[in-house]
């Protein structure tokens, strides 16, 4: 009788051990290895950083510096500005009008004109100076590839062509033809050897 009971127990003990082992494995599988939601959050943050970096690389520089993005346009008042025009621009017209048509200058430097500091913008074939208020201070055209918009007059035109198109000048020498209109000066520099225009300048007349 005792022998039978021992045989029965010897069968039950391994069964109990197996049940306890399986229960423990089930508990391990059901318990989370890490706090829920952490891994998706990390991926989302990484995506956000990559998107911000990509947008920053393609954003215009003035947008990155916090400036508003505005398409530069001519001022409505520009048509009312007096005097000569060169390249289609009048003196004191906003520099933004130039940028709208030609983009930003290749080079810039500053110079002094009396007590005023002028920023000189170098473009291929011409330069434009603007004052601290960003108004055009002077224009200088010196390339035949640039249309000064003077009724067909351009660099390389002859002295006689200039006189025919612009009329009687204020001053006429071997090397200079100068016109004045409403406080502005249009100056043509002439190569006395070829008798052709080598540069055309627009600037303000001296105050009397």
List the helices and strands and how they pair.
Blueprint: H1 2-30, H2 38-58, H3 61-64, E1 85-86, E2 89-90, H4 95-102, E3 107-113, E4 116-123, E5 126-130, E6 136-141, H5 159-166, E7 171-172, E8 176-181, E9 184-191, E10 196-204
Antiparallel strand pairs: 1-2, 3-4, 4-5, 5-6, 6-10, 7-8, 8-9, 9-10
Kindly describe this structure.
This is DUF4309 domain-containing protein. Residues 32-74 are annotated as: Disordered. It comes from Insulibacter thermoxylanivorax. It is a single chain. The protein has 208 residues and is α+β, with helices and mostly antiparallel strands. The chain has helices at 2-30, 38-58, 61-64, 95-102, 159-166, and strands spanning 85-86, 89-90, 107-113, 116-123, 126-130, 136-141, 171-172, 176-181, 184-191, 196-204. The chain has three domains: 1-31; 35-68; 76-204, Pathogenesis-related Protein p14a. The chain has five helices and ten strands; from the N terminus they run αααββαββββαββββ. It has an eight-stranded antiparallel beta sheet with strand order 3-4-5-6-10-9-8-7, covered by helices on one side.
Helix vs. strand class: alpha+beta
Tell me the name of the CATH class of the largest domain: Alpha Beta
Q: H/E series, N to C? A: HHHEEHEEEEHEEEE
Biggest sheet details: 8 strands, antiparallel
| Beta-strand residue percentage | 25-35%
| Uncertain stretches of 5 or more adjacent residues | 1-6, 30-74
């Amino acid at each position: 009788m005792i022998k039978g009971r021992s045989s029965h127990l010897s069968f039950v003990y391994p069964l109990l051990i197996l049940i306890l082992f399986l229960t423990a494995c089930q508990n391990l599988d059901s318990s989370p290895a890490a706090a829920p939601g952490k891994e998706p959050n990390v991926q989302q943050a990484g995506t956000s950083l990559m998107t911000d970096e990509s947008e920053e690389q393609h954003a215009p520089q003035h947008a990155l510096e916090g400036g508003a993005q505005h398409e530069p346009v001519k001022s409505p008042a520009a048509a009312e500005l007096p005097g000569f025009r060169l390249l289609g621009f009048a003196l004191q017209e906003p520099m933004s009008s130039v940028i709208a048509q030609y983009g930003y200058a290749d080079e810039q430097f500053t110079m002094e004109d009396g007590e005023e500091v002028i920023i000189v913008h170098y473009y291929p074939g011409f330069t434009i100076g603007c004052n601290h208020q960003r108004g055009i201070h002077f224009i200088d055209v010196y390339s035949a590839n640039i249309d000064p918009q003077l009724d067909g007059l351009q660099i390389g035109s002859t002295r006689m062509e200039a006189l025919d198109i612009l009329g009687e000048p204020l001053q006429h020498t071997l090397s200079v033809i100068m016109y004045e209109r409403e406080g502005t000066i249009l100056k043509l520099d002439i190569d006395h050897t070829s008798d052709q225009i080598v540069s055309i300048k627009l600037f303000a007349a001296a105050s009397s």
